[in-house]
Task: structure prediction
Amino acid sequence: MTRQTSVLLLTAALLAFFLTVGAGDVPPTGEDLVQRLGCLGCHSLQGQGGDKGPAWDGLGARLTPEAIRRQILTPRGRMPSFAQIKPQELKALVTYLSGLK
Ligand code: HEC
Result:
């Protein structure tokens, strides 16, 4: 094997290793989730987003974490339920949203 080939192989192996580790169970952040789940199609933050639902500015001062959790799982009004999300996703969402003061 030439020196060049082994450097190449080593690089490939390292890359494969880090990609695998990266794809592991890294908990998503609440910010990622509101993008991914499309919440901002209906809700807005600082004027950015949709207007079908209430703006989220100051949400954490208005609703308890429990009320936010309930709205995500069994929503009032014209909001779809997100009861199918993973428990860790729900937790990340509630933490993020209740931090919006
Ligand atoms: C199709 C539009 C729509 C989508 C998508 C949507 N919502 Fe809503 N949401 C609403 C509406 C409408 C309300 C108001 C419900 C009511 O009280 O009548 C609401 C209310 C809420 C409230 C309570 C807000 C308040 O001020 O009382 C929270 C919290 C909330 N949504 C979180 C979420 C989260 C988190 C997501 C994404 C996982 C999401 N929503 C996606 C339409 C939507």
Notes: The pocket of heme C is lined by residues 37-39, 41-43, 52-54, 59, 62-63, 68, 71-72, 76-80, 82, 93, 97 (CB under 6 Å).
